[in-house]
Amino acid sequence: MSVLVNKDSKIIVQGFTGSEGTFHAGQMIEYGSNVVGGVTPGKGGQTHLDKPVFNTVKEAVDKTGADVTIIFVPPAFAADAIMEAADAGIKVIVTITEGIPVKDMMNAKPYAKSRGAVLVGPNCPGVITPEEAKVGIMPGFVFKKGKVGIVSKSGTLTYEAADQVVKAGMGISTAIGIGGDPIIGTSTKEAVQMLMEDPETEGIVMIGEIGGSYEADAAKWIKENGNKKPVVGFIAGQTAPPGRRMGHAGAIIGGKDDTAEAKMRIMGECGLHVVDSPADIGAVMKKALS
Amino acid sequence: MNIHEYQAKEILKSYGVTIQEGVVADTPDKAVEAAKELNRETGTEWYVIKAQIHAGGRGKGKVNETGSNGVVLAKSLDEVGPKAKDILGGTLVTHQTGAEGKKVNKVLIAQDVYYPGESDPKEYYLSILLDRGTGKNVIMASTEGGMDIETVAEETPDKIVKEWIDPAVGLQGFQARKVAFSLGLEGDAFKGMVKFIFALYKAYEATDASQFEINPVLKTSDNKILAVDAKVNIDDNALYRHKDIAELRDLTEEDPLEVEAGKSGLNYVKLDGNVGCMVNGAGLAMATMDIIKLSGGEPANFLDVGGGANAQTVEAGFRIILKDPNVKAILINIFGGIVRCDRVANGVVEAYKNIGDINVPIIVRLQGTNAEEGAKIIEDSGLKVTSAIVLKDAAEKVKEVLS
């Protein structure tokens, strides 16, 4: 068991023949992910990285039975790509693209949901179930197989957390990079819920950032559902000034409730193991699981 | 991206939003010309002189050099020149600018809209913004115009009405009416407000805005509805399809180091601390700032060098951090995934040698692909650079350097 992606996932790559798509699709194939083809409008019929290229997602799904897609399409066309995937019946849509206008996501997110698809991202590193499938841009070797799930808004901070967990003698069940944009498909709470329900996952690392209320919502849900598995939480941006955007489009303190301090307080009150220093994630998880 | 009040009002007006009219000027002489033009167009005989800076609280704010407020009233044409002179070129300090204040390069000469008449003028609050929780735009309105909305939310939350807009169908008539009724309006003022809300929402959608705050919206004594102030924020990610708005960017409002970093493709935010940092990834960059604080320092900046950290980006990052005289140490924190640590280490050494004279201690923490090789390159370089692999270790080294 695992969540979102596994060895049976049939993965296509949208924006397959572009430079980002080519590089990361190659890395995914090398990792062992079951990439069955890709989509680049106008290049259908060609072969790329020894896989078939299709003009439309519909055609790719019909010919390959694909159920997962990863999107590297440029920002101006990414929302369209998300909707195309959802309309074609893709079940899990992982969107890596950074810089999609909010207004586009405001339409694409409910559209994907209405077609029964799970959207992860945008502006995220993707999803990895170690030894089964990497659907993302993360360095695969960092994620050794194990029983700790990770939910995170950040890319490199996810790798940092995974590395600490592995070096502390544990491993990763599934890591979900949910993304750092103001509108993202899968919320912290939804990702935590998936891992809570996954029998392979025994503990969860939840990494958030300043901005929005996703982490507080997740913490309240965890408490309401009986704190069934230990959750180690960290919020990046304790030293970030209000009103300034810290790299990620969504990482901005708009009011007193979306500061790191406020989120960490709520997480603590809800029974999470909150770490002040990101250097302590691995050690605290080990202690929580022993 | 933020724009000035005068720019925001021009955009709003082009979508049919009724505004307090005004003419912008950058010298006292031009301010007088602007007032004359405004008099011809609107008949106003009193003039509001408003400093144009990207910060709120201008009315209560003070100009350091002259003691003038950032928004003043001239009750005759003769007063316009001297009063504009007291603001232009000065440094305006408001509760949002910080103690250093902001230089005023332009003033908006605006018509007086608080003239007496059949009813009392009344101020309201109106804003449109993204509600991240629902992924929808929300219209917020309050009878407490002119006040800081956070204060209203805290003290009298029942005085704020919210109306969420379904993106699939857009703003509906019943929603605009609901908002206008909740403000206690009737007759022409009610009709004017409904029209105002529709025009405002149209402008919001059409410009890919991420926030509109009209505070105050004024009902004049003759029951007109006008935007007296306008704070407009545009979604940076959508600027590619609004070239005309992108051109309104005022670089003098931004930190020069941030502007320079942007040109090198670096994401940099200047802060007040003593330890500079350079990191790959926004989340890890914020986490690194937090580590600096926990180690007894204060972060001097946020700096994300992005996915492909190489010698050029590292050198550009170094140069920008070193321009900040408060920096006493620099922590470089790179998690090498696709980027190999040995290459980053070579980049650091190369950049260091290119710059030459670096007087502050540097701690380089490289973790991930080829971390050991990276550490060895740093140690063998003979430079005044300390290396670390584990994050905890890096934090300890920052502590040592600061003590």
UniProtKB/TrEMBL annotation, chain A:
Organism this protein belongs to: Ekhidna lutea
Spell out the protein name for this chain.
Succinate--CoA ligase [ADP-forming] subunit alpha
EC number of this enzyme: 6.2.1.5
| Annotated pathway | Carbohydrate metabolism; tricarboxylic acid cycle; succinate from succinyl-CoA (ligase route): step 1/1
Has UniProt tagged this entry with the keyword Phosphoprotein? Answer: no
Q: Carries keyword Nucleotide-binding?
A: yes
- What is annotated as the active site? 248
| All residue ranges annotated as the CoA-binding domain in the record | 4-100
Q: According to its record, what are the GO cellular component terms? A: succinate-CoA ligase complex (ADP-forming)
Please provide, alphabetically and separated by semicolons, the GO molecular function terms listed in this UniProt record: nucleotide binding; succinate-CoA ligase (ADP-forming) activity; succinate-CoA ligase (GDP-forming) activity
What does this chain do?
A: Succinyl-CoA synthetase functions in the citric acid cycle (TCA), coupling the hydrolysis of succinyl-CoA to the synthesis of either ATP or GTP and thus represents the only step of substrate-level phosphorylation in the TCA. The alpha subunit of the enzyme binds the substrates coenzyme A and phosphate, while succinate binding and nucleotide specificity is provided by the beta subunit.
Gene3D superfamilies (UniProt xref): NAD(P)-binding Rossmann-like Domain (3.40.50.720), Succinyl-CoA synthetase domains (3.40.50.261)
Give the quaternary structure: Heterotetramer of two alpha and two beta subunits.
Q: Which residues bind CoA?
A: 17-20, 43, 96-98
Automatic annotation (TrEMBL), chain B:
- Pathway connected to this protein: Carbohydrate metabolism; tricarboxylic acid cycle; succinate from succinyl-CoA (ligase route): step 1/1
Sites binding Mg(2+) sit at 215, 229
* One GO term describing the cellular component: succinate-CoA ligase complex
Boundaries of each ATP-citrate synthase/succinyl-CoA ligase C-terminal domain copy? Answer: 278-398
Task: Extract one GO BP annotation from the record.
Answer: succinyl-CoA metabolic process
Give one GO term, molecular function aspect.
succinate-CoA ligase (ADP-forming) activity
* Catalytic activity from the UniProt record: succinate + ATP + CoA = succinyl-CoA + ADP + phosphate; GTP + succinate + CoA = succinyl-CoA + GDP + phosphate
Q: Does the keyword ATP-binding apply?
A: yes
**Do you know which InterPro entries this protein is assigned to?**
ATP-grasp_succ-CoA_synth-type, ATP_grasp_subdomain_1, Succ-CoA_synthase_bsu_CS, SUCC_ACL_C, Succ_CoA_ligase-like_bsu, Succinyl-CoA_synth-like
Specify which residues bind ATP according to the UniProt entry for this protein: 50, 57-59, 113, 123
Q: Where does substrate bind?
A: 280, 337-339
Write out the function statement from the record. Answer: Succinyl-CoA synthetase functions in the citric acid cycle (TCA), coupling the hydrolysis of succinyl-CoA to the synthesis of either ATP or GTP and thus represents the only step of substrate-level phosphorylation in the TCA. The beta subunit provides nucleotide specificity of the enzyme and binds the substrate succinate, while the binding sites for coenzyme A and phosphate are found in the alpha subunit.
What do we know about how this protein assembles, alone or with others? Heterotetramer of two alpha and two beta subunits.
Name the coenzymes or cofactors required: Mg(2+)
Give the Enzyme Commission number. Answer: 6.2.1.5
Explain how, and how many, cofactor molecules are bound.
Answer: Binds 1 Mg(2+) ion per subunit.
Looking at its record, which EC class is this enzyme?
ligase
For this chain, the family text in UniProt reads: Belongs to the succinate/malate CoA ligase beta subunit family.
Name of this chain's protein: Succinate--CoA ligase [ADP-forming] subunit beta
Write down the PANTHER family for this protein, in alphabetical order.
SUCCINATE--COA LIGASE [GDP-FORMING] SUBUNIT BETA, MITOCHONDRIAL, SUCCINYL-COA SYNTHETASE BETA CHAIN
